[in-house]
Write a structure and sequence with these properties.
Its main location: membrane. This is Probable membrane transporter protein. It is found in: Cell membrane; Membrane. It is a multi-pass membrane protein. The chain is mainly α. The chain has one domain. Helix content is about 85%, strand content about 0%. α1 runs parallel beside α9. It is globular and about 45 Å long. The two termini are about 25 Å apart. The mean pLDDT is about 85.
Length: about 250
């Protein structure tokens, strides 16, 4: 049952990430945490997210905004070790509740501000986005909502947003694996080799479906999906926190 769940989740999450740039960890992490526990669940999804982004990178290369990759990606990586250290002193359920609640409030505020303010594109905003994404990634396995909030406020074009997130996910997830392993004693689950192959198959199939959908989905629809995914990720984070408390 676990393997079927991983296969389906990697397929759906990869297809959405190929179209929108995010969604892999936000959809998969809550499921993996419930089934495998916080430590192994986040480690598994983080490792699979690296594979997914590496496979997507070549086809999205030309749309990457490298300036934003560095200004957001480097703060993301730098914020992960201290966030992991803080995470060792806080109950996991509280972390999920806090991360989810902050995302819901932040994304709601960003949507309200979007139509009434000028685009927010400053270096400071990019650095704060990176810090938020890094903390969310290592503590709860979801860094996408912070990216979505910046995408909303900066009115980042969909194609560039989706492409630029892939190298940032590779940077962030690599730092998460190292930090959780060294600071939080997290380990990858001991899955059989064929389970990893099935997960890779789900990723490959999801990429193919997502690639086929490109150009057939209106940018406004894609943007709407991005916002919904971020909000779903936040709600699932809150639910995960409540379940762990109970």
């Amino acid at each position: 049952m676990l393997i079927v769940g991983i296969l389906l989740l990697t397929f759906i999450a990869t297809a959405l990430q190929r179209i929108t740039g995010l969604g892999f960890a936000m959809l998969s992490a809550p499921f993996a945490v419930v089934v495998l526990g916080t430590h192994q669940g986040i480690m598994l999804i983080t490792a699979l997210a690296i594979i997914a982004s590496l496979l997507m990178l070549p086809s999205m290369w030309r749309d990457i905004d490298w300036s934003r990759v560095w200004w957001i990606g480097i703060p993301t990586m730098l914020s992960i070790p201290p966030a992991a250290w803080v995470g060792t002193m806080i109950d996991g359920s509280i972390i999920y509740l806090l991360v989810g609640a902050l995302v819901i409030v932040g994304l709601g505020a960003a949507l309200l501000m979007r139509g009434t303010t000028q685009p927010v594109t400053s270096r400071g905003a990019q650095i704060l986005t990176g810090i938020g994404a890094g903390a969310g990634s290592v503590l709860a396995g979801i860094g996408g909502p912070a990216m979505t909030i910046f995408g909303v406020l900066s009115r980042w074009p969909v194609a560039s947003f989706a492409a630029s997130l892939q190298p940032m996910w590779i940077m962030a997830c690599s730092a998460v694996l190292v930090s959780r392993f060294t600071l939080m004693d997290s380990t990858l689950p001991e899955l059989e080799w064929w389970a990893w192959m099935l997960a890779a198959l789900g990723i490959a199939a999801g990429m193919w479906v997502g690639q086929r959908a490109l150009g057939k989905v209106n940018d406004r629809v894609v943007f709407g999906i991005v916002v919904v995914l971020a909000m779903v990720g936040a709600v699932l984070s809150v639910i995960t926190g409540i379940m762990e408390l109970l």
